[in-house]
Design goal:
Layout lengths: L1 E6 L10 E4 L9 H4 L7 H9 L2 E5 L7 E11 L4 E8 L8 H4 L17 E5 L3 H7 L25 E3 L2 H10 L6 E7 L26 H11 L10 H10 L6 E5 L2 H9 L7 E8 L4 E3 L3 H7 L6 H6 L7 H5 L2 H13 L9 H4 L2 E5 L5 H5 L2 E6 L14 E7 L2 H10 L4 H4 L3 H11 L6
Parallel strand pairs: 1-3, 7-14, 11-12
Antiparallel strand pairs: 1-6, 2-5, 3-4, 4-5, 8-10, 9-13, 10-14, 12-13
Helix pairs in contact: 8-15
Length: 433
Amino acid sequence: MFNFLVTSIAGAWDRPGYEYDRGRFLEYTSDEIAARFRELKEPQIKALTELPCLFAYEGTDEPMRVGRLKRIKPRNDGRLLFIEPEFDTRVPPISFEQIKPFQVSLDIRDWELNRTHWAIKDEDLFQMLTDSGIVPGVAEIPKIEKADLPPVSAPEFQANSVGAFIGHVLDLDHGGREVFYRGHSNRTKYLLEPSIFRKDERGNFINRYAEDRMYRELLVSNSVDFQGDIYTLDRLVRMQHYSLPTRLLDITSNPLIALYFACKSNLDQDGEVVVFSMDQTQIKYFDSDTASCIANLTRLPQKSKDDVDYSSNDVRKFNRQNAVKQLLHFIKEEKPFFEGRIDPRHLRSVICVKGKHTNNRIAFQSGAFLLFGDDATLDEGGSPEIAVQRIAVVDKRSVIKQLDQLNINESTVFPYIESSAKYIAQKFSFKGA
């Protein structure tokens, strides 16, 4: 197993330190490994520093270097990861032409060399380099296998009934903050990320690079459904409702709805309810300027999003970038009097938004959303703005039956005739002896 680190900044690996956006961490990494690093606490950081590293640059012209990470430190409330690289002096620089025949063996995919990111690969880097003759035999270093990685942390609370769950919910102290909930049917697999950022089992983005095209295609093919929507956020809410991947993450103010979603599938896997709390001043509404700025990132082509430079603290300089001007154009289409001054911090944030209840499902589910900015992540342990707690859910079949007694079932959570028909058919199906 090894760290594969790619950057676009020339000479970055010759500097004493480098920062990654947290959103670039664990790209092109298998689900099984990524789940072990959903939180970055002392055990996880220790494991990362013990792994060998392959340091690379975007493109294939610059040589790669082998080494390790001397130090890893989360910064900016976990939004950035600062690392100190150290090269292994026994291993000379390695050209891409030397690595290319073994690219598949090392699980380095073609697109990886075109994107700044940090992946963890389940392959033996030193063994491959030695066996291939790229480097002479070096002293054996300790190997870390998947079994050696820190386990997925368990929630503090566990519920096996509706009563136990409600008891835990009522015992939580939120200090007067507003509270929302989200249900995960598999607590070790699902992360706090919107569907547009999700990856396949090997860590490849599924839909992210086609975000702007999917948005437009759905508008073209179903334009009548969106005629009453004023803001891009309104359209994203409707698209989310129709299962198009978006940068929205559904949350609810009703804990029983979240409990239902934690139990409705993956019946043999432990689920969880994630509890969010935040100051009321942090919550935005459908007509928020900040929400408009983030939502309209959807309409930018991926190349434009990649071209945005966030390194400068000069807001005026930031807004003079061509990609940002393009974004401003989209914002002013729905907000003609928008000042035309985007704060770059807002574009990379995660905010809570209360959208319009444009359909019965959102209304019944007491729905709200977390809206994710460009490469934005919400740490699995929460952030200063959004506190996170978890309740594990076991014995799901019993919990589902109890929820049905409280009229929380497929027919009511998804209030459409097809859902009602499916629920009624299941309710009256022959069970056998």
